[in-house]
């Protein structure tokens, strides 16, 4: 468990519905690190602390450890593993090849998959349909890897018997993905076409350290629907 010292020296700037913040909260929970959660609001001006802590992007999440800020969700997750490497579980494989493989698929989630999901979030009509198709194509690649990649095929998680870097990268988006499906009446992860990925997501959702910080899917869907509606609403006349 975290010490009293850790409680006052670790802060997280974030929002409960942000999938990127969820990643960091999962990593902190798995490591048993206590922290102060400072809520930022999507529709409010950015706080002075956020702008000061992340002057380049001015985005959440930001982890502040001993007064020093660390930005970008997957960089933060890897920082947590390195800064608290003496705490189980290990979020990164020890073997160099397996570690490189984990980084590859974590990057795939951010560089290939998430832009498609963002397209689902913002898209309408044909653009929405194209974004859904592109998302499904990338999910199918992950499904194939779950069955063939020797680093994690046949195991409970991408990290093996315990949650690891890829699980956090993809799993942090789980409620967002499910919320997108509800809000857009789309099927992104079809249990029949992607049985391995679907089973993994259900398993991940119920895992200790995950279920406690995972946003409620109904609230996530409501938030997504509201934001989508605001993007297509005509401007109000004076």
From TrEMBL:
PROSITE patterns to which the protein is assigned, alphabetical: GST_CTER, GST_NTER
GST N-terminal domain residues: 8-88
GO CC annotation terms, alphabetical: cytoplasm
UniProt keyword terms in alphabetical order: Transferase
Domain GST C-terminal: 95-232
GO BP, sorted A to Z: glutathione metabolic process; toxin catabolic process
Protein name, as recorded: glutathione transferase
The organism of origin for this protein: Pinus yunnanensis
């Amino acid at each position: 468990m975290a010490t009293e010292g850790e409680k006052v020296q670790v802060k997280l700037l974030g929002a409960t519905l942000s999938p990127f913040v969820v990643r960091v909260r999962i990593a902190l929970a798995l490591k048993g690190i206590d922290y102060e959660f400072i809520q930022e609001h999507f529709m409010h001006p950015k706080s002075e602390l956020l702008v000061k802590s992340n002057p380049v992007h001015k985005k959440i999440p930001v982890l502040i450890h001993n007064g020093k800020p660390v930005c970008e969700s997957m960089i933060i997750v890897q920082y947590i593993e390195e800064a608290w490497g003496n705490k189980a579980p290990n979020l990164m494989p020890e073997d160099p090849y397996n570690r490189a493989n984990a980084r590859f698929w974590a990057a795939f989630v951010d560089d290939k998959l998430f832009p498609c999901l963002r397209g689902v979030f913002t898209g309408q009509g044909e653009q929405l349909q194209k974004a859904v198709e592109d998302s499904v194509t990338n999910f199918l690649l992950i499904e194939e890897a779950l069955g063939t990649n020797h680093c994690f095929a046949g195991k409970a998680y991408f990290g093996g018997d315990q949650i690891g870097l890829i699980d956090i990268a993809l799993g942090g988006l789980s409620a967002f993905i499910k919320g997108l499906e509800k809000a857009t009446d789309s099927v992104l992860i079809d249990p029949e076409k992607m049985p391995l990925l679907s089973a993994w997501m259900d398993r991940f959702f119920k895992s200790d350290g995950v279920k406690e910080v995972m946003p409620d899917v109904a609230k996530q869907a409501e938030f997504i629907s509201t934001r989508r509606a605001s993007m297509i609403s005509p401007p109000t006349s004076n």
